[in-house]
Amino acid sequence: MIETTGADGVMVQFGGQTSVNVGEPLKAEIERRGLECEILGTSVEAMDLAEDRDRFNVLMDEIGVAQPEGGTATSREGALDLAHRIGYPVLVRPSYVLGGRAMRVVENDAELERYIEEAVRVAPDKPILVDQFLADAVELDVDAVADGEDVLIGGVMEHVESAGVHSGDSACMIPPRSLDDATLERVRDVTEDIARALDTVGLLNVQLAVTGVHDPDVGAEVYVLEANPRSSRTVPFVSKATGVPIAKLAAKVMTERSLTELSVDEQIPEHLSVKEVVLPFDRLPGSDPRLGPEMKSTGEVMGTARSLGKAYDKAQDATGKPIPESGTAVVDLSAEEFPDPDTDAGEALVEGFSARFELSTATDLIEAARRGEIDLIISRQRDLLEVAVEEEITYFSTHASAKAALEALDHAADDIDVMAVSDRPKRVANWGE
Q: What is the pLDDT of residue 423?
């Protein structure tokens, strides 16, 4: 294609992980054929550095950015040694795979050994990554654009789901609401430091976890989970939520325009936008509908409103699984991912749903669901959720999404202000030139 078109440059940042993976062989083939063409934007070497866990860890240590404790293992013994040093639970996954494939949270040696067998089948020639699992952390995605010197924060997104759910399967919101100004400033500083350390020219997505948000005695700590000098699935959402076309800006800086020249600053919208995922389980009978570290979603929708509750409600409507406002509900908090019913958090869930729904007392919930007697399910039971998918019953399989559903119900009667994305004022002076 390069020979046919006589292209002067190729942008590999916009094709996700697959196109980044072909960067090095493409560069080598261009050189072998003697073509006058270059890979535009962030260098192939920097992209590879971000993918190489050991080299990336060293770089983060050099610039003073905290990371979860972890490392790579190429053997069963090495993985067990790492897990013992870090302490269970640990997050494990094969390196160089897409979508969190075969990623797991494991609690003990037996689970880790079973996992190793699976990981070898997925990526037999790659090491296994073993990381500290940051329980109760607030997870963030940050999309940014850099021109080699300056960095534009496109958007800071707070995940609705807590740690343990793949970032691609979590609903997220712009702007974030759980972080104070000092923590948000640290998030921006970390993103800018990483962009400069990787000599980023174009797009950058950084995934972060913030601990101590809900414990003022401890204080917030920002950890980097990974950084990808390429476009992320969140780029369209960020652009629509903020009015800043970060993909177009990235393309311009990759062709040697500067952010200063483009006259653009971070935009924090007054409204709140929620990205929700579309899951394929209705087309995949027998698949596990529960969310976890391995990505399962195949699409995304968006809702925007003046409150998180209404934005989340609109986003759920757009998925085709609207939150019912009345009827009969199952609130099953038996799984360890949910709070104990006797705790304040557990009581809040039960009381919140019982105030709006009649709670099912059926002895056989699966049959009750099949008979059309249940309108909403809060549970982690796989067989019950599979029936929910079959019968098109709205369900939530995590504590965080159940809490968000309650907040949505609180705002269900709010007025809907409708405005086309295209009608929002453009926020960048020179990006279209």
A: 67
